[in-house]
Write a structure and sequence with these properties.
Layout: E1 18-22, H1 23-39, E2 43-47, H2 54-62, E3 67-70, H3 73-81, E4 86-89, H4 96-105, E5 110-115, H5 118-131, E6 135-140, H6 153-164, E7 170-176, H7 188-211, E8 218-221, H8 227-231, E9 238-239, H9 249-252, E10 267-277, E11 280-283, E12 298-299, E13 304-309, E14 314-318, E15 332-336, H10 340-344, E16 349-354, E17 357-363
Parallel strand pairs: 1-16, 2-3, 2-9, 3-4, 4-5, 5-6, 6-7, 7-8, 8-9
Antiparallel strand pairs: 1-10, 10-11, 10-15, 11-14, 12-15, 13-14, 16-17
């Protein structure tokens, strides 16, 4: 697959639709978030599911991340192949083939995985007996997302005993306590309250483990929208932000937390105008270029709004009572995606630019790594 740009090209020569990554903004966000987390005395485990890019993961580790998270075994394999030596699959893994791959991967890097049911532990143990390797296991606690995770402290202790029965090929690292639904609560107070409730549940799980004689060295969680609250809790030992190195319109819809660093937009989608009529233009990027689960993309063009989207087209129309910027055939329009993670998964390349010119092109290495 040919990249949409060459190093040295001006942005105007980038083929479209393309993902643009502003390197100045990327580096500023990286420094701000890593500095804030380090200043709070926590570890940062960057979430690779947002960008799926080995080069970004390498830069996150170089900036102090202890490793990366991902959601799929295929993502973990790609990051390890790219030189990342500590990877947590912050998800449950089921299926003999996937578990065999995970066991083999653990022979080349430090690998962790989450569980919330005894059957997962038994299936993982079978794979480790057959393939070899050693896996670090985190018990996932449902701290408010109502998705994966156990609900009661008693369940946490039962899972810890099941993990202990398979030592030393399987060891208990601690707790996964990620409150995903808190990331996009719009006010700082709402996010703070959600994480306070998450901390209560995570603390109860930790206390139950310790009362039963188990160590709990790691409590991990926290995303781009809340990592500061987890860092200030005195409970969490590491946080897992991912979108901070990209950002999207949904995150910018949050009311900023005055105690958190101000993050800049990094990721944009560059499109080209292919059709015009009075009050309307059509761009060459549609559902195959943008994820729209968090709303239509936001054009960075004064006086224009996204009106509709289809497979290959995005229709922009003028805003009422606005003086729109003049746009004609062949003109470029930059847009913020509503949700960065699934948008990145639609593209093969990130076009990295600084000062109006392309300085690099990074492959989205783990695009489509769904299993």
């Amino acid at each position: 697959m040919t990249p949409p740009a060459r190093i040295g090209d001006p942005i105007a020569q980038v083929d479209t639709p393309a993902l643009l990554l502003d390197l100045d903004a990327f580096e500023a966000n990286l420094q701000a978030v890593h500095g804030a987390v380090a200043g709070a005395g926590l570890a940062l485990r960057a979430h690779g599911k947002a960008h799926k890019c080995v080069e970004i993961a390498r830069r996150q580790v170089a900036a102090g991340a202890i490793g990366v998270c991902c959601q799929k075994v295929g993502e973990a394999e790609i990051f390890v192949d790219g030189g990342i030596r500590d990877v947590l699959v912050s998800n449950q893994v089921i299926g003999a083939t996937k578990l065999a791959r995970l066991a083999r991967l653990s022979q080349r890097a430090t690998v962790g995985v989450c569980v919330d049911h005894p059957a997962q532990i038994e299936a993982l143990a079978k794979a480790l007996r057959e393939e070899g390797g050693r896996i670090e296991v985190l018990i996932e606690v449902d701290v408010g997302s109502a998705r994966c995770g156990v609900v009661t402290p008693a369940e946490v202790v039962d899972l810890a005993r099941a993990i202990q029965a398979h030592a030393p090929m399987m060891t208990l690292r601690g707790l996964q306590a990620y409150q995903g639904s808190a990331q996009h609560k719009r006010t700082p107070q709402a996010r703070r309250e959600a994480i306070a409730q998450a901390c209560e549940k995570a603390a109860a799980a930790r206390d139950a483990l310790q009362a039963a004689g188990f160590a709990c060295p790691v409590i991990t969680g926290g995303g781009t929208g809340t990592y500061g609250h987890e860092a200030a809790s005195g409970l969490y030992t590491e946080v897992q932000p991912g979108s901070y190195v990209l950002m999207d319109a949904d995150y910018f819809a949050n009311e900023p937390d005055p105690q958190a660093p101000v993050l800049r937009p990094v990721l944009e989608v560059l499109c080209q105008v292919i059709s015009v009529r009075p009050g309307q233009v059509v761009l060459d990027g549609g559902l195959k270029a943008f994820a729209v689960d968090s709303g239509l993309p936001v054009p960075l063009a004064d006086g224009w709004r996204s009106a509709s989207i289809s497979d290959e087209h995005l229709v922009l129309r003028t805003k009422p009572e606005a003086t729109p910027r003049a746009i004609g055939i062949g003109d470029h329009v930059r847009l913020l995606t509503g949700h960065c993670d699934p948008t990145v998964n639609l593209h093969d390349w990130l076009v990295v630019h600084r000062g109006g010119r392309v300085v690099d092109v990074w492959r989205v290495d783990a695009r489509g790594a769904l299993f």
